[in-house]
Each structure stands twice: as structure tokens, then as C-alpha cells.
Amino acid sequence: MRYAYYPGCSLGRSAWPYEASTKAVSEALGLELEEVEDWNCCGASEYFSLNKTAAYALVARNLALAARQNGLKQLLAPCSMCYLNLRKTDHYMGKYPKLGKTTNAALAAGGLSYKPGSLEVRHLLDAVVNDVGLEAIAAKVTQPLAGLRVACYYGCLVVRPEFNGKSFDNPEYPTHLDQLMQALGAEVVDFPLKAHCCGGHMTQISADTAFELIRRLLHNADEYQADVIVTLCPMCQLNLDAYQSQVNRHFKTDYHIPVLYFTQMIGLAMGISPDALGIGSEFVSAGEALAKIGETIEAVPGGAPPRRKRDEKALPMPGQKGEA
Amino acid sequence: MSERIGVYVCHCGSNIAGVVDVEELSRWAGETLDDVVVSRDYKFMCSSLGQELIEDDIKKEGLTRVVVAACSPHLHERTFRRSCASAGMNPYLCQMASIREQVSWTTQDKAAALSKSKAMVAGAVERVKLHEALEPNQVPVNPNTLVVGGGIAGIQAALELADAGYQVHLVEREPSIGGHMAQFDKTFPTLDCAACILTPKMSDVGNHPNINLLSYSEVEEVTGYVGNFVARVRKKARYVKEADCTGCGICIDKCPKKVVDEVFEAGLGYRKAVYRPFPQAVPKFPVIDRESCIYFERGTCKACEKFCPTNAIDFEQQDTILDLEVGNIILATGYDLFDARKIPQYGYGRLANVYTSLEFERLCNASGPTEGKIVLRDGVTQPKSVAIIHCVGSRDKRHNPHCSAICCMSALKFGHLVTEKTGAEVYSFYIDMRPLHKGYEEFYDRLLEEGMHFIRGRVAEVTDADRQPGEEGKLIVQAEDTLLGMQRRIPVDMVILMAGLQPRRDAKDVSLRFGISCSMAGWFTERHPKLDPVATMTDGVFIAGTCQGPKDIPDTVSQGAAAAARVQGMIAVGSVEVEPVVATIHEERCSGCRICNNLCPFNAIEFLTDKAVSYINAALCKGCGTCVAACPAGAISGAHFSNEQIFAEISGLLYDVARGNGAKTPQPVEIPA
Amino acid sequence: MADATFEPKIIAFLCNWCSYRAADLAGTSRIKYPPNLRMIRVMCSGRVDPTFVLKAFALGADAVMIAGCHPGECHYLEQNYKAMRRFAMLRHTLRKLGLEEGRVRLQWASAAEGAQLARAISEMTEEVRALGPLNWPAQWSEEDGSIETAILQLEEEHAQAMEVAA
After folding, report:
1. What are the b/e assignments for B441-468, b being 16+ CB within 10 Å?
2. C in contact with A (at least 3 C-beta pairs within 8 A)
């Protein structure tokens, strides 16, 4: 499967482990990623509030470049903000003809044009789970992450907003990443704040707001005794990881929960060395967590919890079938 | 001999006359159209004076055909047909042209309205010349009735018919009658115990000499027509011989296999593989659930058989098929609850102490899994605070747009029961409060006085992720309190979701089986939403209760009684008129190609092997006309909608294109003798 | 290029149970739509014989609409599927005989869809207005054999469709 690949600015800089791990696993997963030539920044969140026309043109340039590259029809973005911007631009150019015309007029100045709908913009997670498939991935797992408790954190942008009433996962309670981690053999904890905001750029603008949001996420992951938080967006990773010590200082808490990318987890499960996946450079060290799986290499069948004696008085949960 | 046609143009006050020049229309019809000998306009043709105009003209002017240009035939075709009949003219020689719903109400262009009205009248006039005098068929009505569904609606209908002296077959899919009402604890607003008011009726049904109770049975096929239906019922094998079973229940005691009871206990309790849904079940005979029974799975156990004192267990029992002949059918198949898992942010299925309304009823019910104690899912702890969320899956564009009618009242009822049994704080999150009927508003007042808290706002999420002290270990309900204008997070021990009422999962299949229509959602379609809520478009099939739409118990009982009354009316008259709009095959033209045979969904067309032609059973024919259009030899004619009549109508409608002024009737094709 | 003041004449066959009631509802709701469509009530869309459509064109209609209940909701259970099949064949035949597609339309409308039916009627009226008057006789000359050619082509297609693989 060939895809146009739009890494976005952070993957080249602070989120280089995300890029390293993506590249490391993509071949094994059968994803041919062709980087869009001469791509530019997607403008992240601020540009749209400053200058709409320029912002849409900025993003559309990437769409135009990708669309004319070697007959590619799918554009993958690993960063949730880039994903949202690209998808939004493509959708609105089609939905609002005036915007489409203005944007194309701007592109024309650079000798480019883009017909809305020519590309399908997708998040990397979507392609991994839906195109490669959980079964195929599970088959490639040589070192299941058995015994590792992971909290799957999606952040807010990857499943919201829905365009055309469609999003690749449930906007309130997504499950793709959970299923992926399960396929890798990890023990997925039920993380209720999985799609809640990490604060985004608030860390720069209003630290107090952002810290509270980050604290909630860390607190919740801690309550569920997660060993590691798995994420799919460089901003979320940065906020949860780089600011964790500041949050601790601010609230006088003591969280030490490493935050890794899902591609790094895939790589670990496929037996790729942590070095090659960019593990080791994170602020909150993943050493302790990974020691767990470094030790338990033999496969534990299905990772099923031990059979508990049924509590005589307890009422069955909905959907609990069969024998009492 | 040419016809003598009377044309009557109605003003309908200013509804028609305000847009269409009715006098001009009437004058034009009289002067321009062939064979029109009388042409009048009048303010209200449907009034008795208007009708008298027609009747007088028929008698005095010797009219042979009548055209009324007025409102939609769906409103007054019957009225004008009756007028003609009372003046001695066959009612089918009357035709209406709809110049109100289709002309005056849809355009403001007066010139266009007039010319379109002229076209409609010309079409009607051309058509009516070719109408034939038809006589409706009388068919007898079988006094037996089939009631499908043994909930309170079906029970009420069955009892009323049986008490009136008529035979009723009551078919119920579950092992016992009672329906959803049997699952409830108390009913609003009186807080009557549901079982106390229901079980006497259930027992009446079980004992009534005129009711043939077929429980654990389903209707598989229905053929026939009003007054003369045949319903094929499959009585599923209980593996218990009803003639021998005393209902002692030893088999249930001794059965070693326990499974989750998904149906009656709403997944909250357990039952055995051989079971009765609840202790007061009617009939009292237990049922062996094949899928959970150890004997059927592995061939061992048979504890029930060993211990049964009357030898009533029969593992070899087979399903029985019965063909019931009935005159009328009442469908009272009830509702299903919305699956709250579709709203994952409310945590149902994930967070232990989130319950649906039906689960909570079972919790409160004294014969439920906790003997009536309101406890958390651990089975032991009483909640100190309970949140009730309204409109789960109702009034929701993503799921069901409708309001489920009973949840507000049920929520009040739950609030009261929680307060009474546990003294816990109750928080009700609502959009609107809908206590609509007698005693409901007073019940709401009572709850306000009892100290129930009401927060107006749609709940955003139910979560266990605590944020501040006081929230640890609780379920936190986050909602916007629209009256205060702020977000609130309320930590509670238990959450009850008022899940909406939905049509049964198989409602569309059932409607097809009985030949009625249902809405896109699956609610059975009534004949008229205001004026005829228990009849359907299919004569002889009636609907009652929540299968028609969400409603409370008083309304359900009313509808059950109403349906029974309609059936009694049909039986009292003894026969029913079937519209003579049927198709006929002209033997001499039929080549026996049999293309028509498979086209009829009512199996009205059969092939006569001795004559090698097809034949239509007029009693089964519903008059759709598909076979008429399909016959390659043109051997089938459709009464009142013949090819010639429709061609004539087309040519009339195109009066201003085909021929300008001066209508000419196309000549019907001569059929060789 | 169609005449700007051309008022198309459209004949519509509506089934008694759904689409005719939808038209009634449109009227009751006082929804305004172009007066160019003239309605004929039949009991079911399955009653509509292709000859009705041809007759309407022959007598001067510019377009024909057939309206019925949504698939799955036919009052006579499944007859609108038969209407659907017939319509497919009819449209194909008419296309071969030189009739533009916009002149025949199959429209589903449930009894509650008055507004939608009115919208469909407006759409169709404008579409046919743009197509101009149907001038079928003028399209076919007795002399140049265009009718024969079209008929022969249809016969060939039919024969091919009837062929069973050996």
C-alpha cells in the first residue's frame, strides 16, 4: 500500500522519535510511505485565527503537492493537528465553493491547484489498524507486551470534529488504539479520559489551565495503574511528557508515567531495539516500565486474568453471558 | 348512447375559489366538454345542500355520471359516492378531481391554476365516461380473533372479546404472558404494584373458556383477507407435557445449570435452564431452554426428568404447527428498549454502577434478583446518592428523534422509590419534564416536596475519573445546569439511564408478515394518526399498545379495548364489504404464459391446469393492478382502473395540448367475441 | 436553447397510498410548487403500464413522473419493486428512441414526505423546462429511416440479452 506521507514540523524536531519509530515499523507493516516533496508547515492552530485565506492556502499547498505526486490517492499524517488541518481544508474547499475558488486562486500563484476530494486524508493510526489489520499485526508480534499496563490516550483532535458525520473511530469513546495495543499483547486499562484535551498550546499561553488538564490525565492514568501512556500526537506527547515534572511541582504530586508513541510500542512488540525506536530520549524515562516486558518474554496465552471465584452476591454486568 | 355528465365545482369557501375562478371553470366545463349536460359551482359541495344538488340533478336531469371538482378523494370520495347511491346511481359512476390539494393550495398563479383545474376536470370527465357500475362483494366475517402479543394491550383486547362471548387465540412468543409490565415494580402515578394489578388479568386470561392461550408460540405466516384469515402458528416445544405438569416447580429447583436471564431479569439476574420467567407466570408450565440445557448439550443430567413426580418432562417433544382460522387480527407486540451501549460516554456496560431503567425495575421488584433491595452491582452496598438521566437514546438526532413518553414519569417513580427504600439523595437530569396525564403533574409536585433534585441539562458524560476531593470512588455526572448557567459535576454512587422505547427489533418483518406497513423506524402505521389510531390500512388487522408508538399503561389499555371494540363491531355486522377494485383475467385472451402468477404478493393468481389459463381469486385480489400492467397479451383488466379509463384521463389532462378545445373520447378497443 | 416562457406539461402517476397522500400533504401544508404537473391516481405504482407513459408522450406531454412508496414500504408489499424493474427497461428503451433522460422520472415518496415530493416536482419542472418541449414527431422523419434504425438496434440488443451461453 502506497501512501503520500506528510510528517509535519514536529516530527522533524521535538517528536523525532515518532518519525524514527514510524519509519522503523512501516516497512514491516507493508506501508509504503512517500514523503510529500517540498511540504510546508500546516499552520497548526494559530494561523487560522489570524488569516483564513492564507491559512487555507498554506495547507492546500500540501494537498496540491501530494495530489500530483505519482498518482497517490491517500495522504497519511501522523500528527493529529496536521491531520485535522489537511482534512478540514480538503473538506471545506469542497463544501464552500467560494473558499475553494479563493484557495485555488492563491495556489495558482505558485503554479498549483487542488481539486477537493482528490485525496483521502487519514491519520496514521487509521491506516495501521484498518489497512494493515489487527490480525496481520498480531502475526508479526515476536515479543508480546505481556504484563505491560497501557493507557491509550487519543487526545481530542484525532476523532473530533467529524466531517460529513464520519470519523474513523467513535468521537466520544474511540477504541482503535486500545484494540491495537491488545493485539500487541499489552494489558489495556480502561482510561476514561482517553479523548480529553491535553491542553494543546495552552502550555505557552496559560500554563495554569494546561497544567490542570495534564494533571487530570496523569492522575487518571495513575489511578488505573498504567505503566505507560501511549499516544498518537506529538503535542499530547510533549505536554504529558515534557511538562510532567512542572505539573508535579505545581500540584505537589509525584507522577512518573512515561509517554510513548504507538509506533514505538509496535516496534517493541516486533522486537526492534528501543534505540532504533527513539526510546530513551523522553523526559520521563520509560526504563522502569519497559523493564517489565524486558523480563517477561515468554508469551502468556491471551493475557487473560486468573479466574476469580464468582462473588455470590454480585449482579451480572450487562452483556455478561452464559454460566453463572 | 352518450352519457349525461354532471360537473360540480366546489368553492370550498375561499380555499378553492380564492385562487381558481370557479364560475369560469364551471361555465367552461359545461360549454366545452362533450356530454356535460349540467355544470354547477357551489360554496360547499360536501354540505347536505351541496349533496342535494347532485341528488336532485341525478333524478331530474337523468344524469348517468357525476364529476365533483373539489378536495382530495381521500376526504370525500365516500361522501359523494354515497350521495349518488342515495339518488339511485351506482356509486362507482362518480369521479372526483382534486383541485384543492393539487391546485388551489399549491400555487398562487391564478391563470395557471385555472388552466390546471380545467385539465383536471377534463381528465375526470373523460375518465368517468368509461366507468362501470360495480357492486362491492360481501364476505362473511369469522367471529374468531387472533391477538398477537400477550402484554397488557393484548391481554386487555383478548379479555374484552372473550367476555363478549367470542373466541380468541392469544399468541405470545415468551413462555408466559405479561409483557414488559410484568417486569415493573410499581406503576406511576398511583404507585400501584404492577404485578398486583396485572396478575388478576393474567389469571383471567389463563382461565377464560373463550381464550385459547398459545404461549411460547409465534405466528409464522398469514394468508387470506378481512373476515377470513388463516394464521399458521408454531407452538415451540417446551419439552414439558402440559397435560401432565402440575406446576410444582421441582424441576426448576433441581436443575443444576444457571444462566444469566437476559429477557425477564434484563440481564441482572439468573435463571435455570428449565425455568418459568417469574413465579406468577401464566401458563404455569416451565420451559426447557434448549441452548442452555446440559442434556441437549452433552446428553447427560436429566435431573428434571428424574425428579418430576408426574413424569411430565419429554425431551423428544416437537414443535407443533397450527392453522388458525380467524376473522380479525390484533397486533399488540410491544417495544424494545434502546441499547444504552450506543452512548458510550454514559458508561453503560463499562462502569459497574450504571443501570438502565428496566434493570432498575428488576432491582426494585420484590421478586427480582435482590428481593427488592436497591443495591450497587456488588449486590450488597446501598447507594447514598443516585443520578437519573432522562432521554437516553430519545430526543436525540443521533439515535431516535422521538420522545418516549413515559421516561419522565418513570424517573419520578424511581426517585420516589430510591428515597423511600434507601433515603439516598436523588438527582434527576432532564431536558423537559413531561407529566402529561391525569395525576401526573401532582405526582411531580409530590416528588418536588420529597426533596428530589432536578437539574435541567443534557448530561455530557458519566465518568469515574475523579478530579477533586469528594469524587474519589464515585461516578461523576457532568452536565450543564442550564438554569444556573454553569457546568456541574455531581458525584453519585449509582446512575440510572432512562433508555428510550424503540420498536421491536423484528418489527419490519412482523409488519410484512401481517401485510401492514410500518414507519421507517419500525412503529406500525395507523390508518389515521388522530382519527383512527387502532386500525391499519389493511382491513381486518388492528394494532394496539406500544407497537404503534410509545405510550403509558392507561393509553395502552385504552387502545387494546378500542381494537377489541372495532373487532366486535365487525363481528356484530357479520359481513364486510370488499371494494370491487379487483383484476379479472379474460380466459379467451390468456395464453397461459404465467408471467402474472409470480407477481401477486397475495397469491391471488393461480394457474388452472385443465384449462391452461391463469385465474384470479377476486376475494384475495387487493386491486394493486400490477398484473394488469404486466400481461403481455392485455388479457387482464383492472376494474375501476382499466387501461382505457387511464388513457382517457391522460387525454383529458392534456386537453390543451392534444386537441385545443373540443374533447374527443378515445374509442375503447373492441374485444373479439 | 429552450424558450424562456416555455411551460412544460408533465403527467404524473401517483400511487394511492403513499405518493398521492404525499401530494395531498404538500397541498394541506400549503407548500407552493410549479403548476405544470398534472396528477393521475392509480392504486399502486405497479399499475403503471409502460404504454401509459408512451401514450402521455404521444398525446403531448413533455415529461412523465411515476411516484410510489419507498422500496420496502409498498402497501401491496412488493409491487413497487416491479415498477422499478419496469421503469429501468422503459428508460432504456426511451433513451434508445431519442428521449432525454430527464423526461422520465421515478420518484419515491412516503405519505409523510409532502415537502420532498414538492421539491422533486419543482426540480423536475425546471429540468424539463431547460430541455424544452418534446417534439418527438419532428425528431423522426418517415423518410430517412431513423426510426427503423433505432428499432433494429433495439431488436439486436434484445436478441443479445436473450442469448444463453452454450
Report:
1. eebbeebeeeebebbbbebebbbbbbbe
2. no
- B255-265 mean pLDDT: 95
Asked if B102 contacts B120 with a C-beta cutoff of 8 angstroms, the reply is yes
What are B348's three cell numbers?
Answer: 453503560
Q: Where among B269, B290, B318 does a domain terminate?
A: B318
Rounded to whole angstroms, how far apart are CA atoms B326 and A59?
Answer: 70
Q: In B, which residues are within 8 Å of C43 by CB distance?
A: 581, 623-625, 641
Q: Is residue B578 part of a domain?
A: no
Alpha carbons C76 and C82: distance in angstroms, whole number: 11
Q: Does the pLDDT of residue A65 top 50, yes or no?
A: yes
Mean pLDDT of C9-24: 93
Provide the CATH number for the domain around residue B96: 3.40.50
Q: What contacts A142, CB < 8 A, 6 or more positions away?
A: A269, A270, A271
CB-based contact, B352 to chain A, within 8 Å:
yes
State which amino acid sits at residue A238: L
Domain span at B259:
250-318
Distant-in-sequence, close-in-space partners of A277: CB < 8 Å, separation ≥ 6: A17, A20, A21, A24, A263, A264, A267, A268
Q: Does B379 touch chain A (CB under 8 A)?
A: yes
Q: Is there a contact between A316 and B258 if contact means CB atoms under 8 Å apart? A: no
Which residue range is the domain that position A231 belongs to? Answer: 141-290
pLDDT in tens, B355-407: 999 999 999 999 999 999 999 999 999 999 999 999 999 999 999 999 999 99
* 3-state DSSP assignment of residue A206: coil
Contact assignment for A315 to B370 by CB distance below 8 Å = yes
Lowest mean pLDDT among A111-120, B186-195, C151-160: C151-160
Q: Which residues of chain A neighbour B377 with C-beta distances below 8 Å?
A: 314-315, 317
pLDDT at A276: 87
pTM recorded for the entire structure = 0.82
DSSP assignment, residue B313? B
CB atoms within 10 A of CB A71: 7
pLDDT band at B578; cut points 50, 70, 90: confident
Contact B322, B463 (CB under 8 A): no
Listed residue (B42, B45, B60, B36) closest to B122, CA to CA = B36
**pLDDT of res. B434:** 96
Specify whether B354 is located in the same domain as B432: yes
Residue C28 has pLDDT above 80, yes or no: yes
Q: Which amino acid is at B383?
A: P
Length of chain A: 324
Residue C133 cell numbers, joined: 418541449
Confidence of residue B15 (pLDDT cuts 50, 70, 90): very high
Could you tell me if B564 and B590 lie in one domain? no
Q: Which chain B residue lies closest to A224 (C-alpha atoms)?
A: B465
Measured between CA atoms, the residue of chain C closest to residue B512 is C77
Tell me: pLDDT of C112 over 50: yes
Are B356 and B337 contacting, i.e. CB atoms less than 8 angstroms apart? yes
Q: Are residues B520 and B490 in the same domain?
A: no
User: Positive or negative CA dihedral for B421, B427, B428, B429?
Assistant: negative
Mutation target to probe the A interface, by most A beta carbons within 10 A, among B263, B294, B342, B345 is B345
Asked whether the ipTM of the predicted complex exceeds the cut of 0.85, the reply is yes
Eight-class DSSP state of C97: T
- Report B:606-635 residues touching C (Cβ under 8 A): 622-626, 628-630
Residue A305 banded pLDDT, cuts 50, 70, 90: very low
